[in-house]
């Protein structure tokens, strides 16, 4: 193991290339997570609702019918998780060959279409794979072969999965957000990014910062301006990067979110009443702060 680390330390570009290839493969799996995990959650919620109705409202269950309640809420196979079934074309259901699953290259070789029925394959798949590869390669160059790199890569995988799910479903699942929050606190027990005191205060301050904005907006307008998942994502970044980076993350995410929202409204792709997911902007801002946060803060303070 030490020999491998020595090789990567002596050849930074080799480490970057290997990191890109490995991360792009992980990105292929993240596509699966982004698509399938919300389906799994919805099925779990359906089962919980049916159990509640059966226990507390048996008359309603008898009236509607047990079979009606048990009807699936989607058209996917009964056994559907992150592993089963194997990837197939959603239209012709033909199996996807191993070489078709090559990150980025597989989509390019297929020219963005199913090999069997020529149904278009979303360009999002290679985008997620490339994004994962590029971000982790950037981490490899910045941190080198170290525990910080490994932890930052794990954080990046979680952020991409959460951002993709939020874009699709307006949802930041606790099943991903909370374990990554605890991972940040665990990492900082050994001062990997900040001290544990800064991390603990950051987790609390991150949650309360957006929680306060949420309630102030609701009191003034009577509307909900954001979801609780956004609070937890800010708490996550507080746990990883400390309370000192929270103002920068809030500022960057707000600026990007406002620019995207205004652009979409001007192009008439979004009305004022349509909500937009804020999680991807927080995730992007937090990832930038992970690498360049202190440099940005120092540059800003130097200009005062």
TrEMBL record:
Domain of life, per lineage: Bacteria
EC number(s) recorded for this UniProt protein: 2.1.1.-, 3.4.23.43
GO MF annotations in UniProt: aspartic-type endopeptidase activity; methyltransferase activity
Record's GO cellular component terms: plasma membrane
Tagged with keyword Cell inner membrane: yes
Prepilin peptidase A24 N-terminal domain ranges (all copies): 21-143
Spans traversing the lipid bilayer: 12-34, 147-165, 171-187, 199-217, 237-266, 278-302
Principal location class: membrane
Keyword entries, A-Z: Cell inner membrane, Cell membrane, Hydrolase, Membrane, Methyltransferase, Multifunctional enzyme, Protease, S-adenosyl-L-methionine, Transferase, Transmembrane, Transmembrane helix
GO biological process: methylation; signal peptide processing
Biological role stated in the UniProt entry: Plays an essential role in type IV pili and type II pseudopili formation by proteolytically removing the leader sequence from substrate proteins and subsequently monomethylating the alpha-amino group of the newly exposed N-terminal phenylalanine.
Similarity annotation: Belongs to the peptidase A24 family.
Catalytic activities: Typically cleaves a -Gly-|-Phe- bond to release an N-terminal, basic peptide of 5-8 residues from type IV prepilin, and then N-methylates the new N-terminal amino group, the methyl donor being S-adenosyl-L-methionine
Localization per record: Cell inner membrane; Cell membrane
Keyword Secreted: no
Protein name per UniProt: Prepilin leader peptidase/N-methyltransferase
Protein topology in the membrane: Multi-pass membrane protein
């Amino acid at each position: 193991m030490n020999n491998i680390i020595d090789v990567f330390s002596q050849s930074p570009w080799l480490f970057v290339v290997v990191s890109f290839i490995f991360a792009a493969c992980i990105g292929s799996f993240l596509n699966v997570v982004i698509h399938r995990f919300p389906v799994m959650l919805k099925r779990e919620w359906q089962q919980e609702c049916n159990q509640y109705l059966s226990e507390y409202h048996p008359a309603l269950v008898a009236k509607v019918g047990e079979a009606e309640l048990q009807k699936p809420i989607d058209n996917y196979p009964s056994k559907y998780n992150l592993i089963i079934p194997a990837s197939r074309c959603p239209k012709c259901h033909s199996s996807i060959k191993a070489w078709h699953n090559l990150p980025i290259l597989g989509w390019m070789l297929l020219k963005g279409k199913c090999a069997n029925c020529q149904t278009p394959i979303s360009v999002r798949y290679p985008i997620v794979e490339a994004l994962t590869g590029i971000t982790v390669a950037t981490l490899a160059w910045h941190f080198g072969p170290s525990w910080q790199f490994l932890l930052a890569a794990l954080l990046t995988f979680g952020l991409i999965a959460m951002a993709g799910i939020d874009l699709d479903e307006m949802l930041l699942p606790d099943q991903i957000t909370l374990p990554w929050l605890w991972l940040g606190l665990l990492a900082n027990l050994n001062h990997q990014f900040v001290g544990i005191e800064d991390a603990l205060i950051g987790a609390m301050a991150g949650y309360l910062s957006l929680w306060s904005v949420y309630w102030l907006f609701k009191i003034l307008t009577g509307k909900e301006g954001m979801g609780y998942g956004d609070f937890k994502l800010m708490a996550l970044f507080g746990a990883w990067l400390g309370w000192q980076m929270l103002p920068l993350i809030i500022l960057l995410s707000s600026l990007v979110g406002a620019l995207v929202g205004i652009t979409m409204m001007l192009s008439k792709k979004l009305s004022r009443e349509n909500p937009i997911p804020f999680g991807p902007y927080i995730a992007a801002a937090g990832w930038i702060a992970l690498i360049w946060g202190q440099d940005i803060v120092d540059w800003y303070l130097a200009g005062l």
